[in-house]
Design a protein that fits this description.
Radius of gyration: 22 Å
Organism: Imhoffiella purpurea
Number of domains: 2
Strand content: 15-25%
Pfam families: CTP_transf_like (PF01467), NUDIX (PF00293)
Helix content: 25-40%
Largest sheet: 7 strands, mixed
Family: Belongs to the Nudix hydrolase family.
Cofactor: Mg(2+)
GO molecular function: hydrolase activity; nucleotidyltransferase activity
CATH superfamily of the largest domain: Nucleoside Triphosphate Pyrophosphohydrolase
CATH class of the largest domain: Alpha Beta
Number of helices: 11
């Protein structure tokens, strides 16, 4: 007899490995059915999030034993980095919808998971559900598995996959996916190598460095100014104009300089300064692949009128105005946390 009608298991599953499958089994020992909530469903492909929602869903389905598949419902939830309440509401809404479909509107629910570090704090956000801890199984993490896979050459792939704590179905899925998406896999390997080289510059320092950057959110007449990144990490993704703080400049001076360098925007500097409407700091510890990076973002609101001419410069391949309506649909193409920065600053205006 199961103690609960429904268990809820939240994770990124990048990739789904033996430790995740063990958690699924433990959850189904507690509950009649399980909701696997796949997080970060709209992230652009990168070395921390190499697989999209549909790909991870297929991985999970391939890993589930036949006798468990009918008891597992897989769905997704988008990140809301700087609006925790919105993310919690998204999780609650997803679970409520499944409760209605599976249990007829009411159910006893337990949240399952493993408290490993500060990244597990989300387990405390759902007091309406019981919490059932699960025991970790694999000695490796998904991060370590990604590092091994991305660090190996293609000729070693079969041997490398065979040695990883992955369900057989996931090994087969990854082998097929890498064979079908060689360009995407090579881009990930290049990004992985770049990040390793970048971080190695600071390996001898007594403490990990903390970087300060700036970003510009420029609005005019229902449009937002974006650039296409020309360099790693995130080559080809859309991003806010911005960059690193120079040693001898203020943060406001830096954002004006970066904005003009990367977009060539034809607006006088005094007008730009007078158009600043909000400023906020964003410091999610995982926001940048390069390491601990804190950014100050500025909201510029230019007067309505013809959109100023822009042209990509510095490490921006191109600059362009995008309607705010189109921007809302581009989360999966936007670099790092820039989509979430825009959402937060628009709420402050």
């Amino acid at each position: 007899m199961n103690r609960y009608d429904l268990a809820v298991y939240i994770g990124r599953f990048q990739p789904f490995y033996d430790g995740h499958l063990a958690c699924v089994r433990q959850a189904l020992d507690l509950a009649a059915n399980l909701v696997v909530l796949v997080g970060s469903i709209n992230r652009p492909r990168n070395i921390r999030d190499p697989f999209g929602y549909a790909e991870r869903r297929e991985m999970i389905e391939s890993a589930l034993p036949a006798d468990l598949r009918d008891r597992v419902v897989i769905t997704g939830v988008a990140d809301r980095l700087y609006n925790l309440s919105s993310w919690v509401a998204g999780v609650q809404g997803a679970v409520d919808g499944i409760v209605t479909a599976v249990a007829g509107g009411e159910a006893s629910i337990t949240l399952v998971g493993h408290r490993k570090d500060h990244s597990s704090s989300y387990l405390d956000l759902f007091p309406q559900w019981d919490f059932s801890p699960v025991e970790p199984v694999s000695m490796l993490s998904a991060t370590e598995i990604r590092d091994v896979l991305l660090g190996e050459g293609a000729s070693d792939l079969d041997e490398t996959l065979a040695a990883q704590p992955l369900p057989d179905g996931v090994k087969s899925y990854l082998r097929d996916w890498i064979g079908a998406e060689p360009d995407a896999w090579e881009a990930l390997r290049q990004e992985w190598a770049f990040v390793r080289r970048y971080r190695s510059q600071f390996a001898a320092l007594p403490y990990p460095p903390i970087f300060q950057t700036v970003d510009a959110v420029v609005l005019q007449a229902g449009h937002i100014l974006m650039v296409e990144r020309g360099a790693q990490p995130g080559r080809g993704l859309l991003a806010l104009p911005g960059g690193f703080l120079d040693v001898e400049e203020t943060i406001e001076d830096a954002v004006i300089r970066e904005l003009r360098e990367e977009t060539g925007i034809k607006v006088p500097e005094p007008v730009l300064r007078g158009s600043i409407r909000a400023r906020a700091r964003y410091d999610d510890p995982q926001r940048s692949l390069r390491g601990r990076t804190i950014t100050d973002a500025f909201l510029f609101e230019l007067r309505p009128g013809p959109l100023p001419r822009v042209k990509g410069g510095s490490d921006a391949r191109k600059a362009q105005w995008i309607s705010l309506a189109e921007f809302q649909s581009l989360e999966s193409r936007i670099y790092e946390d820039h989509y979430h920065i825009v959402q937060d600053l628009l709420g402050r205006a």
